[in-house]
Amino acid sequence: MQAGTAQKISNAILSGAAGFASFFFSLCALLYITELNTKIVAAIVAGAFCLLISYIASERPNSESARALTALGERLLAVEDGDLVSPAPPIVRRMMPKLAAAVDTLFAEVRASIENAHALGMYDPVTSLPNRLHFRSEADKLLGETGNGKSAMLFVDLDRFKNVNDSLGHARGDQLLIMVANRLRVVVTAELSENVARRPLLARLAGDEFTIFFPHIDSVEDVERVARRVALAIAEPFELYGHSVDIGASIGVSVSPDHGTSIESLMRAADIAMYRAKSRGGGQHCLFNEELAAEHQSKVETEKALTEAVNDGEFQLALQPQLSLVTGEIVGAEALLRWNHPNDGLRMPATFIPVAERTGLVAEIGEWVISEVAMMLGNWHRDGFNHRVSFNVSPRQLDRIDFFQRLRTAFAEQGVPLSMIELEFTESAAMEASEAVIAEIGSLREAGVHIAIDDFGTGYSNLARLRSMPLDRVKLDPSLIADIEVSEKARVIVQAVVQLIKGVGAEIVAEAVENAAQADILRAMGCDTVQGFVFGAPMFEPEYRAWVNHVRGTSAQSVA
Question: Which Gene3D superfamilies did the record assign (predicted)?
Fold first, then answer.
């Protein structure tokens, strides 16, 4: 406003000067000049002078504004070079004060937004710890400063955290993560107080995963001591809005340069060790070693080979007969998966199914099994060989919404009566199945499918679910009957389980029966069916059909 007023005064002075000059020249021309030519020249000079003064008065503000706009443009272009700090140029402040103030405010807001975005991009919004990106960047710098010294990585994964989210909600879960982060800060602070040079770096990677990096350690024993501290700190109950929450932590430990010389390799090694700690029950730490490295490499190779095994036709089904202890007859068979590995030969399920479960490939393998069993039973049914076959269903298959429809379609296309198949579900899958899945299983059972629970006795069983679930048979886990011929305690446990299963109206199948003594004890206890090497080893289809025909024709009754 003040600059505009000053400009108006300046222009008025210039215009007055032009008017006075015009008056002065006109007066002189009238008083002293008598010649016409001279008067014309004087009038031209006076007019030109007035025009010059008027031009200066009008152009002066325009040129100032142009210079101000040019300076403003140069300031804005400086943003390309990263200049968000310099204020608006002085000429802009003088000529356009409001615009200058707006530009300064805009740059201040942009700087604040960038700083906020940087903070969001580098720190976890829940715990305020460095996030994965920040951790990797800082840890790389710290690792580069260690020289020939030792460094250590702790990978911390919370146990049973999912239960907290499921029961109390994600908001309470976030509060628990904040409490966990605070306890980890206490452990890290204690390490700093003992040796400031170590400067541990604590971060939350994602979900319930945390990491602690020690750029300088004196010995492996020291970092294992810290890992035990972390496990004890997390094992203490948390008070969460009136709830006492008990969780734990599985901790993997890796050391540089023994287990890797980069942050990526150390994190991978610590992650592998963490999974070993979790497989041991959690609440403890595990140090990475050569055995874990070899096991991990084997899993990686197995995973890679599994992706090609289905398409290359490397899987086969073996059939193990099931014999009734009541009638002595062959009542069916279990289809067991075999992998005809191109380099390793015939591999048992235990060597590759866990990897397939972890990677999700088990669903594709399960689809292959269903297709093969359907084709096999279709041929049997057309030949009049109506023999029941059971096979396992993975929890990963149950996750597919079209699983039951695909199952029905596969057997319908081969003309197989559903009474010829038996589906086996693991104990944990049966107990955790949704009501919708239970309803689908019940519908299949009504259509003739036999339903069995496999490996009973190794997981958690909800007795109410066991009573209400559509169920025909329960298969005892081999670990339950391993010593029944020599251990009184084992016999007591098996007898109790048998009575429990009988109480829900299901038949009992014992797997992995190795000798006649075990079979006799199981028969006395009320076990209905057995399978194992004492009666018949797993065999491929042609051998199985020949074996069954032979047993039926000669010695089925004598075996009982």
Answer: 3.30.70.270, EAL domain
